[in-house]
Specification:
The protein has 267 residues and is an alpha/beta fold. It has helices spanning 3-14, 30-42, 62-73, 78-91, 103-109, 111-120, 137-145, 160-169, 190-201, 217-224, 234-241, 247-266, and strands at residues 18-24, 48-51, 97-101, 125-128, 149-151, 153-154, 174-177, 208-211, 229-232.
Amino acid sequence: MSRLAAKFEALSKAGRKALIPFITTGDPNPEFTLPLMHAMVAAGVDIIELGIPFSDPMADGPVIQRASERALEHKMSLRRVLALAGEFRKTDQHTPIVLMGYVNPIETLGYENFADAAKRADVDGVLTVDLPPEEASQYGALLKARGIDPIFLLAPNSSDDRIQKMDAIGSGYLYYVSLKGVTGAGHLNIADVEAKLQQIRANTRLPIAIGFGVKDAEVSKTIANIGDGVVIGSALISKIEANLDNLAVAQHEIIALLTAMRLAMDT
């Protein structure tokens, strides 16, 4: 059983939901990411999504776009993301790591080379934003052969057929994009999310994490009542951007928000 499957199973047995922060690796500098990862685990997060910086992150709003730019200024490449994930794993054997990014850097490295490198780094899942399931069967098989879960994005307009394709190829969990648009935009319509979750659950056996619109503890509590996991990204990265001259404050504010979310989700 993969770390992700084991994590969701343990949470389900405990009546809890997964708290999943997203951060851009190397933002605002490479030295900040690893200590932040460990601090987030201490605050009660269950899974960490590590963003792979990319020059054209089409699904991301301006906050995460600027985070990618800051990381790329420090030469944060896919290989360096994998190296950092491997460093984290040396002292944390339990927290699942999911890499989240775009297909271009992976294709440049080579799908098989990437799968081998991710295995060496002991990564647990990979979410490739712009690789649809119709084109991912061979890539997904490469990852699964190495014990890595391929994870896919579901949209508000995903059909039953498409959900079933993602269920067949994917593993670990499905990531439901809870609103139309880019990360950090808009506000959630909880009734719409709940209705869509019913359709998704009728077509998949996988846990469902919900993101794109989670901003605070109140929203996370509501989402936790209908999904299996809550993903937060832009709201965390905004705290980095607001405190570039004092990263200790940035980390403190990120941990305070995650702690509040954990408490809200568990009550």
